[in-house]
Structures are given as structure tokens and as C-alpha cells.
Write a structure and sequence with these properties.
single chain, mainly alpha, two-stranded antiparallel sheet, 2 strands, 59% helix, binds zinc ion
């Protein structure tokens, strides 16, 4: 009885560990590139609305308004262009895994996964290998 319970407990821990680990590894990056672009688009759109409001209440001159608005629209277009071809991130296909490890601190690239960067010596916390 006790042995059976111990075996079941050990099996349970093993299954729990194996079942939970992969999710834990893929979870720390909830923001996909598509989400990030979407966030930026929302932020710029909100800024544009603020700008229009401020211009409406007379806080901005015509020139300032037109200039800032044009800059924001350009930024919005850039974000939209960058969004073309960016698909929602799937945990299975990460480009970093195929091309090696990229140091999040100095940007140095290495062919194999490393715990610490060979260039700047900081921990490589970004890679999910
Ligand atoms: Zn580095």
C-alpha cells in the first residue's frame, strides 16, 4: 500500500515535471512581434487622437499640429509595413533557435546555445533551448 502510494507519487511528480516544463519554457514571451506592432499602432493612434484634441482646444498651432501629425502618420505607416509578413508567434517555430543564440545585451550571435555571452559575459536569458 505504502509502496504503491510512493510509486504513484513518484510517477505523478515525473509526469507533472515533464508535462509542465515545456509550457514554462515557452511562456515567458507572451508578446509576439504581431502583438508588439499592434500595441505600437494603438499607442500612435491614441497619440494622434490626443494631438487632434489639443489642436481642437487651441493648445497647438496649425504648423505644430500638421508637422506632428505627419510624423505620427509616417510612424504608423512604418509600423504597418513592418507588420506585413509578421505572423503571430508560435512556440514551435522560433527563428532564434535555427540561427543560433543572440545575446540580448550586446547582440553578439553564437551558433550554439550558451548560458553566458562570450562577448560581454552577461547571462543569455532570452534563449529557450
Ligand atoms: Zn553579450
Amino acid at each position: 500500500m505504502i509502496v504503491t502510494a510512493a510509486v504513484l507519487l513518484a510517477l505523478g511528480v515525473l509526469v507533472y515535471t515533464l508535462a509542465v516544463r515545456p509550457q514554462d519554457v515557452s511562456e515567458p514571451a507572451p508578446t509576439s512581434p504581431a502583438d508588439y506592432l499592434e500595441e505600437r499602432k494603438t499607442a500612435i493612434t491614441e497619440n494622434l487622437q490626443d494631438l487632434q484634441f489639443e489642436y481642437g482646444v487651441g493648445k497647438l498651432s496649425e504648423t505644430d499640429y500638421q508637422e506632428t501629425r505627419r510624423e505620427m502618420q509616417q510612424e504608423l505607416e512604418e509600423v504597418e509595413r513592418a507588420g506585413i509578413g509578421v505572423e503571430p508567434a508560435s512556440p514551435a517555430a522560433k527563428p532564434a533557435a535555427a540561427t543560433g543564440t543572440l545575446c540580448p545585451h550586446c547582440g553578439a550571435r553564437f551558433p550554439q546555445p550558451l548560458k553566458f555571452c562570450g562577448e560581454c559575459g552577461k547571462p543569455m536569458t532570452g534563449g529557450a533551448a
